[in-house]
Amino acid sequence: MATRKGTRRLEPQMSNASPSLDNRARTRRYAAPLAPASLFPGPRMCSAAHMVRTTAPSQNSGPSPRTVPLRPMTVPAAEAEERARSFHDVMSRRRTVRDFDSRPIPDGVLEWAVRTAATAPSGAHVQPWRFVVLTDPERKRRLRAAAEAEEREFYSRRASEEWLAALAPLGTDAHKPFLETAPAVIVVFEVHKGPHTPRPYYTKESVGIAVGLLLATLHQAGLATLTHTPSPMRFLNEICERPPEERGAYVVPVGYPAPGARVPDLVRKPLDQVMTRL
Ligand code: IYR
């Protein structure tokens, strides 16, 4: 089979492709449609540390992927638990915040957070995400007005009694002042197949992981976030000037919490309720 730059021959670790598929079958499965070559930049630009070979080149009779040396994290084993614990201590203080201060977000933070989000693994390395950062007050005002219109429908008609009961401990309603008071709102879109974009795979999983990294980075930088999910989200395309192949998935207000901000008294499940070892 001819080798072509840009042909997908790497398999992201999140793929559940059957290990029993032989290499030719995998190549067929992953070769079409072609991702733009720009998704697989040359070795010097490539930071795709999550990509792995399907086979070592010397044992592979078929085409082999372009590879670069892994830049492994070098954490001494004796420090691993402490590193994990200290990251947990930071992340365990993250809370969804609904009261924001007008204090501006320091320069560069949003860019680093989006860069970090965009390091997420994605199905076939398609990177099916777009982060639209809104800071213009008029744009945020329009966003709030449109989101509140959807939410009024949700709270008065669409939501089941069961759903409303589940939301009661959060104290949410159709009012979304944070969409204006937060100094920035990041609207996250899934990017589907379009005139200039390839078909994505595992889109929700990929974008969900990216948003997790976004929230973690912003929290680490001292900023508060809210993961807001108005439904339906089609109105986001017009406000964010995005084409129809992009679908709004998350609305993330970002900023410093208001002085004296309070959050619901929620308890996280302990380890034995979320982890099973076999
Ligand atoms: N989108 C509504 C309702 C809502 C739904 C869930 I699931 C939440 O965890 C919180 C709210 C709203 O934003 O109010």
Largest sheet: 4 strands, antiparallel
Strand order in the sheet with the most strands: 3-4-6-5
Radius of gyration: 22 Å
The N- to C-terminal Cα distance equals 43 Å
Q: Number of DSSP strands?
A: 6
Flag low-confidence runs: 1-35, 42-55
Order of SSEs: EHEHHEHHHEHEHEH
Domain unit count: 2
Shape: globular
The CATH topology annotation of the largest domain reads as NADH Oxidase
Name the average pLDDT: 85
| Structural class by SSE content | alpha+beta
Discrete helix count: 9
Percent strand: 5-15%
Bound molecules: 3-iodo-tyrosine
Question: Could you walk me through the main structural features you see in this protein, from its secondary elements to its overall organization?
Answer:
By secondary structure, the protein is of the alpha+beta class. The chain folds into two domains: 49 residues, no CATH class; 165 residues, NADH Oxidase (3-Layer(aba) Sandwich), CATH 3.40.109.10. 34% of the residues lie in helices and 11% in strands. The strands form two sheets. Strands 3-4-6-5 form a four-stranded antiparallel sheet. It has a two-stranded antiparallel sheet with strand order 1-2. It starts with 10 loop residues before the first strand and ends with a helix. The N terminus is likely disordered. Bound molecules: 3-iodo-tyrosine. 3-iodo-tyrosine (IYR) binds next to α4.
